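Q: Could you write out the predicted structure for this multi-component system? I'm mainly interested in how the pieces pack against one another.
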Amino acid sequence: MATPILRVDGLSIDYVSRFSGFIHAVSNVSLELNEGEVLGVVGESGSGKSTLALAIARLLDERNAVYKQGKIDFAGVDMVLASEPAVRRVRGTGIFMVFQDPFMSLNPLMQVKDQLLEAISERSKLRNESLHKSEALGQAVESLRAVRIGDTEDVARRYPHELSGGQNQRVMLAMALCEKPKLLIADEPTTALDVTTQAQVLNLIKEIVDTTNMSVMLITHDLAIAGSICDKLAVMYGGMIQEIGSTKLILRDPKHPYTLGLIKSIPNKSKRDGRLDAISGSFSESVLREQYQECSFSSRCPFVRDVCRKSVPALFNSDGRLVRCFNYGEEHEN
Amino acid sequence: MKTESQPCLEIQSVVKRFSLGRVSSLKLLRSRKRFLTAVDGVSLVIDKGETLVLLGESGCGKTTLGRLVVGLDAPDAGNIILNGTKVAHVRDKGAKRGRLQMVFQNPGASLDPFMKIFDCVAEPLLKSNLAKTELKRRVIEALALVGLDESLAGRRAIDISGGQKQRVVIARAIVSNPDLIVLDEPTSSIDVSIQAQILNLLIDLQQLKGFTYLLITHDANVARYMADEIAIMYLGQLVEYGATEKILKSPKHPYTQALLAAVPKLEEMKPPAAVVGEPGSLTNIPKGCRYAVRCPFVMPKCREKDPPTFKTDEALVKCYLYE
């Protein structure tokens, strides 16, 4: 049996705003991620995917975000209740996050190699390793070589603004290699990149997983990107997981109407072959305000029934994956 | 090739340079002006009622070309001809209003957040001396065409959703019945679940009203659905140009092949094929073919001389492989 590195159990996160009250950004999310596994969290804006990622690393702004319910167990550490120093240790050695815009995550006034050295020294401090400076520099250059950045020695001496977006994203991944985390959370890591660079970065992430046994949580709005490197998928809408299971099962035979709609709306024909199967309507933030009143997708669902407007469906087991839809069972949440 | 149908837009060897300021390598020597050539000798034809898609990555000059077409920038060389007359720069006195419209990537940024939706859509008609009732009729008609209710007209841009904003921007573009609409990445900043709705809307409008589109995108899937013809740009030049099905089925230029292979495909469930190297930069253009440094089929002469455009049965290709 594979060992789970991350276990999220019934997690609910609220945002509190003075003007608009509560927003239930994440509701009752449960998932497991094993060592060396890649999980894709797919959803559009407002689905709660980024909130979930930030909650796992406990990077939410505590002034307005509340852990309302549930547990996050990361390699034995309770990320909801752990003390700040314990969480810092996890962030330095256990979880590494890569964001959409690498330029925002890098220090514009530091050379690439110094930023990598900082990551290495932080890691060795937290792990009580003693490391000579020349060894650390060797590791930094080695990590740059591993992400295939071209002229390694030259790039190491450059500043982020002298590098392209794709190169900066590689520097972030090199930093991840320096930290040697157990879990890499990548939040839309390729959205700001060009298509050809995106293909390179996706291949690189896959290679890192294969060689280091790192686990990856890839957050994206693009089902095809998630499908290209993920073992498991979690499709989110309105703060809830709507369908979760193996990538192959979900992409070959989607069960939830939202997953089905997403797959069908990808343009794969010419305008002469007819209209695209678009999902009707649009996401409205109001579904995040009234919790457990109705299925959050009901206003856009082509298969909607009366029961969908009265309560939220539970997650049902159907053909080896979990689906939150009354077409696959009768029970409802709370 | 284009004998039966009448061209709506003709772009003839258009060049656009931007100044990079003065640079001096030695202090004693006189400084010299440096330029970045964003669009370098591009020629295109769009027939009436058709869609041409400009496909390319960031920095290839596709948006600059779009801005030249609507007259937001003036070309340094070459001509842009719309229905027989040259496109004038927007600041020129003789520039006619309403013949050209542009839809930008971010609908939120192209609408005044505090302006009423009605006024946003009516703007292209303000200089046309229309009677008030006629103006109102045209605006309401445009809103109806993009699937927005009349009741929305009194609201402000900050009160409506992203998908609705993009519809308002499209309504504004069609209200003056333009000869050509330039769509610059119209779906890349809106949610995936809305994207297909907007693409359907654009095609419905084209079929209903016969609009001509120049669509700028980096997304091969969007290109497949929208385009009658595709032109692929790399570092300011066209590398391949022809009918959509033919280019997508058998891409000729090595760059087109790499670009299409890099798109993740849902049914494959594996990482897409990656090309080597970084996209080149316009400030440092190599000698010879601009794609030679990344090309897997590179030959000695590619590094010597820039290839001309060759005509194959299916497309125009700027590559020595098709000599």
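A: Regarding packing and overall arrangement: The mean pLDDT of chain B is 89.
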